[in-house]
Amino acid sequence: MDKPTAPRRVVVGNNQNGKSGVLFDNANPHQHNRGGGSTIFFNEIWTFENCPIDLSDHKDAADRPMSHSPPENGAHFRVIQSDLENTNIIDQKSADDFFASMNVTGLSEKMDSKKHWNMHRTRTVDYGVVTKGSRIHVLPDKEIIMNQGDTVVQLGHFHSWDSSLGQNEMLFIMIGGDKYGD
Question: What CATH number belongs to 8-176?
Answer without folding.
Answer: 2.60.120.10
